[in-house]
């Protein structure tokens, strides 16, 4: 496989390159997130460190996931359970904490490949709910043919729900995906944005609240 290794530690990158090459993989190395984003579209697998100098690795992970279904294993020294959950919720297929043995890395890569890649995220995809039209590609929303202006986060919340209509998203999951911090669940920020969506579209039932569970895309 053609593997993108995103790692800013030269010594570790060299060791992993040698080990992966011995197993028949072709390695493309990136030390910066900006290079990883540029190269991720041309590889079969991504090994992603989170401690990158130009961008947090979780943000890089989210950006890759918006456009690619390439298998990704996060490889990092971060051991905090919250970080692990954020990595998996942001789209990682697996999470491996340093230091690790090469044999474990290979086994995990093989397991991810056996499971198959996740569905491609919707890009130029349009979801219609009644007379509400949500264009995920252009980030435009219209109601009855009339455009509706949403804030960036209002659209991000709506898009997250629209990608899988009917699927319930927990408050923590939405806050983690859109705000990047599930601990904001104690705030009313999400409630304010959901209220804004209902008000601006004039469709109170567009976003349904399931008490104690979360939200899902509903009818009008």
From TrEMBL:
<protein>
    <recommendedName>
        <fullName>Sensory transduction protein RegX3</fullName>
    </recommendedName>
</protein>
<dbReference type="InterPro" id="IPR001789">
    <property type="entry name" value="Sig_transdc_resp-reg_receiver"/>
</dbReference>
<feature type="domain" description="OmpR/PhoB-type">
    <location>
        <begin position="124"/>
        <end position="219"/>
    </location>
</feature>
<dbReference type="InterPro" id="IPR001867">
    <property type="entry name" value="OmpR/PhoB-type_DNA-bd"/>
</dbReference>
<feature type="DNA-binding region" description="OmpR/PhoB-type">
    <location>
        <begin position="124"/>
        <end position="219"/>
    </location>
</feature>
<dbReference type="InterPro" id="IPR036388">
    <property type="entry name" value="WH-like_DNA-bd_sf"/>
</dbReference>
<dbReference type="Pfam" id="PF00486">
    <property type="entry name" value="Trans_reg_C"/>
</dbReference>
<keyword id="KW-0597">Phosphoprotein</keyword>
<keyword id="KW-0238">DNA-binding</keyword>
<dbReference type="InterPro" id="IPR039420">
    <property type="entry name" value="WalR-like"/>
</dbReference>
<keyword id="KW-0805">Transcription regulation</keyword>
<feature type="modified residue" description="4-aspartylphosphate">
    <location>
        <position position="49"/>
    </location>
</feature>
<feature type="domain" description="Response regulatory">
    <location>
        <begin position="2"/>
        <end position="113"/>
    </location>
</feature>
<keyword id="KW-0804">Transcription</keyword>
<dbReference type="Pfam" id="PF00072">
    <property type="entry name" value="Response_reg"/>
</dbReference>
<dbReference type="InterPro" id="IPR011006">
    <property type="entry name" value="CheY-like_superfamily"/>
</dbReference>
């Amino acid at each position: 496989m053609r593997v993108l290794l995103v790692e800013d530690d030269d010594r570790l990158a060299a060791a992993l390159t040698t080990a992966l090459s011995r197993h028949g993989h072709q390695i493309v190395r990136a030390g910066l997130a900006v290079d990883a984003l540029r190269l991720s579209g041309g590889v079969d697998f991504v090994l992603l460190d989170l401690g990158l100098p130009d961008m947090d690795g979780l943000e890089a992970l989210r950006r890759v996931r918006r456009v690619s279904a390439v298998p990704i294993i996060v490889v990092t020294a971060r051991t905090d359970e919250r970080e692990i959950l954020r990595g998996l919720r942001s789209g990682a297929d697996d999470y491996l904490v340093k230091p690790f043995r090469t044999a474990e890395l290979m086994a995990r890569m093989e397991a991810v490949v056996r499971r198959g890649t996740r569905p491609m995220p919707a890009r130029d995809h349009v979801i219609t709910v009644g007379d509400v039209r949500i264009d995920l590609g252009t980030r435009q929303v219209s109601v009855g043919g009339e455009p509706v202006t949403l804030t960036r986060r209002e659209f991000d919340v709506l898009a997250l729900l629209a990608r899988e209509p009917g699927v319930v998203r927990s408050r923590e999951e939405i806050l983690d995906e859109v705000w990047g911090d599930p601990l904001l669940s104690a705030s009313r920020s999400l409630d304010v944005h959901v209220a804004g969506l209902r008000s601006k579209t004039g469709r109170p039932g567009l976003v349904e609240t399931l008490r104690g569970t979360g939200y899902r895309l509903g009818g009008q």
